Amino acid sequence: MKNFRILFILILGLSIYSCTDDDDSVTPGTKVTPNEEELITTVQLIFSNEFNVILDSASFNDPDGDGGNAPSIDTITLQSGTDYTVDLKFLDASDANDVEDITIEIEEEDDEHLICFDQSNISGLTINRSDSDGTYEIGLKSLWVVDSNASSNSGVLKLTLKHQPGSKDGTCAPGDIDVEIDFPVIIN
Amino acid sequence: MLLLLLGIQSFYAQNNCDFTLSGSVIDEHDSSKLAFATLFIIDEQRGVSADENGSYVLDKLCPKTYRIVVSHIGCESDTAEVKISSNMKFNFILEHHLEELQEVQVNASLNENTTNKSQLTEEKLNENTGKALSEMLSSINGVSTINTGANISKPVIGGFKNNRVQFINQGIQLQSQQWGDEHAPEIDPFAAEKYSVIKGAGSVRYAGGVLGGLVIVEPKALPISPGISGELNSLYATNNRLYNNSLMLEGKSKFLPKFAWRIQGSFKRSGNIKTPNYYQKNTGVSELNGSADLGYFEEKWNVRFFYSLFNSEIGIFTGVHIGNLTDLRNAINRSFLRPEDQEGFSYEIRRPKQNIIHELTKLEANFYPTDLGKVNIKLARQFNIREEFDQELPRNKELAALNIPEFSLSLESYSTQVNWSLPSSNKFQTDLGVSLVNQENSINSFRDFIPDYKQDVYSFYAIEKWQHKKTELELGFRIDQNNFRVNKIISREFEEFADEFTNLTISFGFNYEFTKSQSLKGNLTYTERPPAINELYSSGLHHGSASLEFGNNELGKEKSSSFDLTYQLKKDKFQYEVYGYIRYIQDFIFLNPTGLDLTIRGAFPSYDWENTDALVRGFDQTIQYNLTSNFTIINSASFLWANNLDANNLLINMPSNRVETSLKYKKSSEERKRTITAKAGNQFVLKQNRFNEEQEFAVPPDSYSLFFTSFSFKKEFKNKQTIESIITIDNLLNEVYRDYLNRFRFFTDEQGRNITIRLNYNF
Predict the structure, then answer these.
(1) pLDDT digits (tens, 9 = 90+) for B550-576
(2) Distance separating alpha carbons of residues B341 and B338, to the nearest angstrom
(3) CB contacts < 8 Å between A and B, how many?
(4) What is the pLDDT of residue B567?
């Protein structure tokens, strides 16, 4: 019976040990602020004329990131017979009070990034990248030439930001997709 | 363990209950007397211990048949029937084969005889050393694997995996991030010696809600005779230039006969895996594991301390890194390797990769209080760190310089388990148990696919076993209470959730032996499984699968009713086993495709965790025929069908049906003390035709046929030393193939021909 008593004391001890961790709150991990991951929530296309006067802009916006609320996508409206200088901005606007400009980071690593424009059901629109990393184009700045007889029949412009570390060769093939947005296009 | 009756000598007859039974308990191998072995008369619930010379005396016996359980440290106890008609001498011989181990969990009279339990044979173990645990287990018929490339694999039992399969390592439920397909079990195969799979949910002792099955990993018994012995394993594989070395030392001092110890360590390194046509860039693995086991054995109690550390770094093939659905479609349609994924052989492990650490500390005690049966207590702490590194560093230079994992989790678990095996009375045996598990999961990265949470699990179980002649019945009951407290980030704010589930398991099993060569066993089980953390709260992009996954905290628990049946026939030349099962699962939790979700990286297929009703049935069959005394032909087949009843379609991601045939030659020479084994065979895996077209990114890969061969030579020396050398060749014909349950099937072929040379030295 002596052994049994030892056993009983042991089990009692265990139960107490099991109950000591009764703190009801969950301690968050070591992350300081939530959602600090490098997020791109917003892409802006800023259309200017040759005198740097902003004519128009179009943007993609998904401040709550993947899932949740669906993103909003503007339609790009172009005037036929017009030339545009287009500046691209990539932003992290997940915190409205602290919008981060990711464009700067892309510029810092311009030899690893390429922006590609793919048109479908659009005619008479020519897009040429006008910036360079020293060897290849980047695409943060581009020149859009809209012919006088240009048209768009439910046209779509696919804008892709490719991350091509070590494999950038001026084409869109290598690397992985960081951003891919289909903008509807109207040409007046 | 085998009990052999040596000799019965009657002296003189008596008619009252005053006979004695005396003799010794002897080790078969070296004929040494086993000190302090225990003998227990089941019918009278009393027992004695042998003295230091292994001698025992049982007195006050009546002229009838007694059932006596004989046990010794490091041995599985067993029951012998002894008919008393006079004062008798009876020597028990205990056989200590190396492959036979201590049943660490409980006493052997309760070893799940009514469930389908398959153990990896020593032969299969030796042919598979160096492989990951799950790959080793897949040599058991009916067990397949889900793979993430060639280095990460998890067992699939009866079509179920992850949350529906539990690992019992050292008698403790493995606590890690087992919800993910790409989260392999953190167990070093060299740290244990016995691997079994219990198919189905019939065993209530270890866990509830085990719809697929249990994987039980048990250590070797600690040594019983004084001296130091050990085992050295060394192997090299040609395909990925893998080398794996393991050393185990164990011993016991003459001066401290009650104390035994073992230490073990293993080291593994491999480089890029070669498909028949190219190397997979960045597919190396580095592993460093160690464990220590200490035991102190008294006559009526013993304690055992165990510690193990698992440490693994796994490279992920760069060719599978994809940004979105467009990338995935391009990868599927690509017939060549992108220039950036081309590389020759290299041992280097870069991003993307996983770093995994798992630590287990366990204290276990057994008590054998007189007249009270046996009590087993386990206390354990498990600590698991999982770090996943993306291919690319963050764009931000300061962040990139830190080189931190993009996804990092730590899980700390404490568990307490008490099992009480009541003294067996007549035909009955009762086991009662309680367990408490407390765990806390912390997310240490910016990415939080699953949230921070705490979970408490309170469990109680009772097992009643009845045995009479050829029939054995087992009734099991288990109740688990799972309490979650979750801290999830929603719109940059922490939000708290609490979920509670009470889960019931009731199991009824039988085992009937028609004759010595034929038996039928079956199991009728109802079990409930609560939703796991990922099913409740996952949210966002599941990296590597290029899909969005959303948990649902309104999910109900799964309720499974299943019937399992096993028929076994063992004749001289012919052995046959068939295992069939049917499971109806109400509120089966599955990933339901909900279409495409738009994100800034383009469209991703999106899935919600939902409940449905499902029906799964299948069978595993093995036929073995001895052609001559040396040649044996073995054929095994595993077939499975699974349906989603609510959606009136199929459950996808189920293993393909398969058939394996092999021919074995074995020749042992007693006088030369050597054994030669040669084996050749073929595995044929059928194309999975049971899929839902709208839910697959690409049609399942074609059927494939793989040939394998192995040759082993074993020599025994004096002092129990053995040397065994084994050469195996997998994928002998260097076949180009892909498997449906490899998540990398869209991107790359499977491993090509692989020749492994193994050396095993026991001393």
Answers:
(1) 999 999 999 999 999 999 999 889 999
(2) 5
(3) 158
(4) 95
Q: Given a cut of 90, is residue B535 above it in pLDDT?
A: yes
| Domain extent at residue A110 | 26-187
| Closest among B165, B164, B132 to B149, alpha carbons compared | B132
Instruction: Answer whether A53 touches B (CB < 8 Å).
Output: no
Alpha-carbon gap, residue B406 to B690, rounded angstroms: 36
Q: Do A4 and B369 touch (CB under 8 A)?
A: yes
Q: Is A159 a domain residue? A: yes
* Interface contact B338-A174, CB threshold 8 A: yes
Asked if residue A120 is part of any domain, the answer here is: yes
Mean predicted confidence (pLDDT) in B352-360: 94
Q: For B221-276, what is each residue's pLDDT tens digit? A: 888 778 899 999 999 999 999 999 999 999 988 888 889 999 999 999 999 999 99
Single-letter code of the amino acid located at B575: Q
* Inter-residue contact B134 to B184 (CB < 8 Å): yes
pLDDT tens digit sequence for B69-84: 887 765 556 667 777 8
Task: Measure in Å the smallest separation between the Cα of B324 and chain A Cα atoms.
Answer: 7
A18, B602: Cβ pair inside 8 Å? no
Q: Using CA atoms, how far apart are residues B746 and B331, in angstroms rounded to an integer? A: 7
Cα separation, B478 vs B313, whole angstroms: 38
Distance, CA of B403 to CA of B691 (rounded, Å): 41
Between CA B36 and CA B296 the distance in angstroms is: 13
The C-alpha atoms of residue B709 and residue B677 are separated, in whole angstroms, by 11
**Are A179 and B601 inside 8 Å of each other by CB?**
yes
Mean pLDDT of chain B: 87
| Measured distance CA(B419)–CA(B374) in Å, rounded | 8
Which residue stretches of chain A have pLDDT < 70? 1-38
Residue A164 in any domain: the answer is yes
- Cα-Cα-Cα-Cα torsion B591, B597, B599, B602, nearest 10 degrees, comes to 100
Task: Write out chain A in H/E/C secondary structure.
Answer: CHHHHHHHHHHHHHHHHHHCCCCCCCCCCCCCCCCCCCCCCEEEEEEECCCCCEEEEEEEECCCCCCCCCCEECCEEECCCCEEEEEEEEEECCCCCCCEECHHHHHHCHHHEEEEEEEEEEEEEEEEECCECCCCECCCEEEEEEEEEEEEEEEEEEEEEEECCCCCCCCCCCCEEEEEEEEEEEEC
pLDDT digits 0-9 by tens, B620-630: 999 999 999 99
Give me the torsion for CA of B222, B223, B229, B232, rounded to 10°: -30
Instruction: State the complex-level ipTM.
Output: 0.74
Distance, CA of B91 to CA of A148 (rounded, Å): 108
Q: Which residue has the tokens 């719809």?
A: B211
* CA dist list (Å): B763 to B31, B227, B258, B720, B757: 19, 11, 22, 7, 20
Q: Across-strand partners of A43?
A: A60, A90
Q: State the total domains in chain A.
A: 1
Prediction pTM value: 0.82
Other Cβ atoms within 10 Å of A37 Cβ, number: 17
A49 in a domain, yes or no? yes
Token pair of B233 as six digits: 């394993």
Q: Which two tokens stand for residue B74?
A: 């490091």
d(CA A47, CA A138): 17
Q: Of the candidates A68, A88, A69, A70, which has an alpha carbon nearest to the alpha carbon of residue A157?
A: A88
**A101 contacts in chain B (CB < 8 Å):** none
| CA-closest candidate to residue B386, choices B411, B403, B367 | B411
Identify whether the C-beta of residue B214 lies closer than 8 Å to the C-beta of residue B198. yes
B446/A36 Cβ within 8 A: yes
